[in-house]
Amino acid sequence: MASSTVSCSVVFTTQTPYPLPSQKYMIPTSWKRFHLSQLINKALTLVKPIPFDFLVKGELLRTSLGEWCTENNIGEEETLEVEYIESVMPPQKMSDIPHDDWVSSVSCQMAGYFYTASYDGYVRLFDYSQELVLSAPAHSAPITSLCSIPESKFIGDEDKSSHLIATSSHDLCAQITRISLPSDSTSKSESKAIARLHLHTAPVSSIASNSTGTHLLTSSWDTLIGVWDTTVPTSDEVPEPLINERERKKRRKLNGGTIESTFKRKAPTMVLKSHTDRVSRVVFGNPGSESTVYSCGFDSTVRLWDVENGVCTRTITSSEKPFVDLALNSDGHTALAASTDRTVTLYDVREASSNHSISTSSGSLVHTATPSCLSTGATPHQVFTGAYDGVVRLWDLRSMKSAITSFKAWDGMKKVLSIDWKRGMVGIGGEGGFEVWKVVEDLHS
């Protein structure tokens, strides 16, 4: 009976809008998350109860305070600093949209719609009611990546608003496509390729737009990174090669029955060279810092680039970590790189004294299968990951020991290949098609 009355000294801190007065509390060591959450709600006299989770020395509390102290060799006389955060509600499936082939890339960035890109070379657009708004061929080989080009909306005619998207593919090209959406049910959506980006001699692994829609980046298995503007030239910048009958058939399929190209052939404004193996992903820095570009590849490096001068300014090298995806958190201080060694590693990418550093990681998120894709939100400490075991996980970077919540997409061991998080929804693409789940709200969406 005596052990149930043992208490420890606790000071609560928070970054939520619900702070407690700074003081020490004597908390029974038998208390767990539920009891602590009740205490915070009562102390704040909240009208509507808010569930909270608790971080102790950067670890999410999943046991009693006493058990945590015993596991971490913390004595009863020590005052614990406990941070409370709002709990994440269990994710709920909203939509399940099968596809005929693997979905390699998804986008939730456009309000009211979801984009998917598939191994069959098609781009598809669905509205929030799961209706197929557009299905259009874009490439003659599997599409690897799709992105919206921001602030590219304009009125193409009186009843159709237009948007630009960019795609990359195994056909060695990237493409800018204009999507025209009907303003009423009597007209149809249309797509038109307006520019093809020619540089690479191997599959183009990713494409990304800057926040203003003026420039694009492409990465490729040929070790190169292309920098492009989004203007459409009046004439081809790259000469068109002679094509055989097989290529003619492919072109007829893509161009709606004609071999005449509807697009202009663009050349890059700059080529970035430094990687020694295939480049998996390239992204712009966050808005305000987009002159810095970040890339990762199968040469086990994360590289930072001065895109204005076309030079690699820093290389972070890890031992035997072929990287497959890369994302920045919202404050731009941390790059998260997913690797085939079943980890997502965090790197501090703020200015360093040396242009070359080895394994300067600040922690790892350990998975049970290869994490294939990442999506960060408006808060710098949260990230979603998708993996080859079909599981999507939400992590809090203040507590990296385990995910704070997870759910399985589809049945069986179907791989997750792409993930995007926006407006409290996560879009998931992979072997099972396309799903949308309701998750924690991305507050700045």
Tell me how many strands there are.
35
Q: How far apart are the termini?
A: 51 Å
Mean pLDDT: 89
| SS content category | mainly beta
Biggest β-sheet description = 5 strands, mixed
Shape: elongated
Count of helices?
A: 3
**Largest beta sheet: strand ordering:** 2-1-5-3-4
Fraction of residues in β-strands: over 45%
The whole-angstrom Rg is 24 Å
> Uncertain runs with pLDDT below 50, 5 residues or more?
152-159
What helical percentage do the residues reach?
A: under 10%
Provide a descriptive summary of the structure in words.
There is one protein chain. Helix content is 7%, strand content 49%. By secondary structure, the protein is mainly beta. Strand 20 and strand 21 form a beta hairpin. The protein is elongated, with a radius of gyration of 24 Å.
